[in-house]
């Protein structure tokens, strides 16, 4: 188990207090460049393992990203998952439930977009919104919330039992950093699309959101689907932590490449014949051109 995994995992049956997690933490990395260098190396290894996972076609990986607004979900996706082959990797965003989705249970829309065998899927927000936003704004009763934590655990156990590895990341920023990011968005036209009319009004519920996350992390970090609290005030370190944990997770899956579906000895023989034929053809054409 690498030190990132061990330090930031939420052990099962732990009562979480986010005040004990420093969002400015960078472990012993004093040099950002060293962190970026390790991130690049991790991403190359992750890309190779993703290709192996896709080729194996027997297991899958679900990654859940949750954070308060401006916590860095999009940035994490861009910096950690960009090297993956899109053929076997998909990002799934969850917006406000539609009228049809609201007429079903809160997990109804989730199961259909869970990863298939060989696939990695990143949930940009997730079914956890049903115990976060709905808790903060009292859209659900205490009894409904209690039931949802249990249903989430059972749902994740179902996925895990079907061959899906699950890792969940809470990107931990503080209130001052969130405001700095909101202000920076105003100064950068390419970021204006991210600005929401709810950005500043929702800040008054900061403490309630922190409490909601603490409860979700405490009740839903399990052996089958662990939560990790990722220090996210420093974007480069956030990306490094996620990449380290993702790399260890993929390595732990013991991915096995499938046996070739053809006779390799016969295929090598045919390849040698074709290469020889090609060399002779090029030689013939060259002599012909000389006249």
Can you describe this structure?
By secondary structure, the protein is α/β, with parallel strands linked by helices. It folds into two domains: 3-258, 3-Layer(aba) Sandwich (Rossmann fold), CATH 3.40.50; 262-291. 49% of the residues lie in helices and 12% in strands. It has helices at 3-8, 32-56, 73-80, 99-102, 108-111, 133-136, 142-161, 175-187, 206-220, 235-252, 264-290; strands spanning 9-10, 60-67, 89-93, 120-124, 164-172, 227-231. The chain has a six-stranded mixed sheet with strand order 1-6-5-2-4-3, with helices on both faces. The protein is elongated, with a radius of gyration of 24 Å. The mean pLDDT is 95.
Oligomer: single chain
Calculate the mean pLDDT score and round it. Answer: 95
Envelope shape: elongated
The separation of the N and C termini measures 69 Å
- In the sheet with the most strands, the strands line up as 1-6-5-2-4-3
Radius of gyration equals 24 Å
Number of helices: 11
Run of helices and strands: HEHEHEHHEHHEHHEHH
**Number of domains in the coordinates?**
2
The number of strands is: 6
CATH architecture type of the largest domain: 3-Layer(aba) Sandwich
Low-pLDDT segments: none
What is CATH's topology name of the largest domain?
A: Rossmann fold
Estimated share of beta-strand residues:
5-15%
Portion of residues within helices: 40-55%
Q: Which class best fits the helix and strand makeup?
A: alpha/beta
In CATH, the homologous superfamily of the largest domain goes by the name P-loop containing nucleotide triphosphate hydrolases
Protein name: Polyphosphate kinase 2 family protein
Organism: Victivallis vadensis
Pfam family, one: PPK2
Keywords: Kinase, Transferase
């Amino acid at each position: 188990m690498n030190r990132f995994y061990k330090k930031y995992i939420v052990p099962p049956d732990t009562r979480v207090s986010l005040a004990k997690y420093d969002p400015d933490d960078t472990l012993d990395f004093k040099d950002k460049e060293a962190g970026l260098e390790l991130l690049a190396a991790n991403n190359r290894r992750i890309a190779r393992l993703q290709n192996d996972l896709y080729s194996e076609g027997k297991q899958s990986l679900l990654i859940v990203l949750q954070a308060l607004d401006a916590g860095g979900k999009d940035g994490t996706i861009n910096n950690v998952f960009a090297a993956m082959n899109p053929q076997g990797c998909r990002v799934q965003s969850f917006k406000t439930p539609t009228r049809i989705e609201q007429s079903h249970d809160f997990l109804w829309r989730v199961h259909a977009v869970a990863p298939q065998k060989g696939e990695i899927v990143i949930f940009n927000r997730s079914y956890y919104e049903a115990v976060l936003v709905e808790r903060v704004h009292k859209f659900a009763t205490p009894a409904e919330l209690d039931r949802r934590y249990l249903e989430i655990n059972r749902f994740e156990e179902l996925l895990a039992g079907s061959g899906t590895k699950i890792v969940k990341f809470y990107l931990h920023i503080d209130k001052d950093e969130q405001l700095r990011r909101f202000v920076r968005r105003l100064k950068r036209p390419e970021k204006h699309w991210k600005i929401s009319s709810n950005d500043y009004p929702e800040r008054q519920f900061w403490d309630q959101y922190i409490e909601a996350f603490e409860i979700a992390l405490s009740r839903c970090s399990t052996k089958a689907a662990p939560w990790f609290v990722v220090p996210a005030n420093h974007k480069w370190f956030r990306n490094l932590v996620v990449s380290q944990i993702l790399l260890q997770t993929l390595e732990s899956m013991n991915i096995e490449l499938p046996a070739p579906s053809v006779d390799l000895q016969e295929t090598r023989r045919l390849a040698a014949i074709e290469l020889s034929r090609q060399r002779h053809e090029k030689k013939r054409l060259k002599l012909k051109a000389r006249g």
